[in-house]
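Figure 6 in text form: structure in, sequence out.
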């Protein structure tokens, strides 16, 4: 009997219960070339099922990794062949507006291949990762290498954490919710401190320019 899934994982229980590994592969694949799908959420849910003995964790990780890499490469192909015209026409359907696309492109150009790896963990960038890499003209072997590394780290982290939670996921989730407010407050304080630091440095730099 699979454990009850709490919070945002709960709606995926019927899908996992009926289709198992196929659900994991399909949803992760769709998310990774831009379709708004809960790829990360279903990976967590599948990891929990594996921890409870309902699925095999090695199979979950292997399928999720393959689906993530293939999905991103489909996105890369779309970006490479369709270019900006494709994004301008269809991007709105995957929440990739022209303004967001331009900002993401600039970010990719500044940071190069390493952002392909990091993007795997960032909501929004994860879905548009391959498309943007294709439109910016990143060499495919370079994209493939960094993308595979990001997929391995992403799958490894979330599937392992969910697997360790297993049947205790409800208790773990309750603890997360319990301390979520304090984490958000701490994050807000940190962001505010960084913003103040930036403004102080900027003002100091302006004064130095005026004095010189």
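Output sequence:
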């Amino acid at each position: 009997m699979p454990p009850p899934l709490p919070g945002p994982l709960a709606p995926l229980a019927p899908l996992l219960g009926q289709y198992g590994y196929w659900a994991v592969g399909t949803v992760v694949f769709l998310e990774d070339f831009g379709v708004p799908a809960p790829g990360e959420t279903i990976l967590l849910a599948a990891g929990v099922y594996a921890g409870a003995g309902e699925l095999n964790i090695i199979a979950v990780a292997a399928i999720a990794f393959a689906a993530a890499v293939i999905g991103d490469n489909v996105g890369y192909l779309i970006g490479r062949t369709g270019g900006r015209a494709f994004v301008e026409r269809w991007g709105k359907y995957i929440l990739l507006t022209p303004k967001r696309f331009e900002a993401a492109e600039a970010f990719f150009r500044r940071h190069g291949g390493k952002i392909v790896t990091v993007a795997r963990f960032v909501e929004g960038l994860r879905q548009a990762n391959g498309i943007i890499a294709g439109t910016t003209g990143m060499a495919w072997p370079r994209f493939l290498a960094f993308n595979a590394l990001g997929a391995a780290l992403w799958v490894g982290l979330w599937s392992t954490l969910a697997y360790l939670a297993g049947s205790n996921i409800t208790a773990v989730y309750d603890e997360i919710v319990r301390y979520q407010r304090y984490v958000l407050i701490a994050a807000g304080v940190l962001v505010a401190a960084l913003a103040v630091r930036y403004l102080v440095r900027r003002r100091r730099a302006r004064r130095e320019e005026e004095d010189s």
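Caption detail: The CA atoms of residues 116 and 186 lie 28 Å apart.
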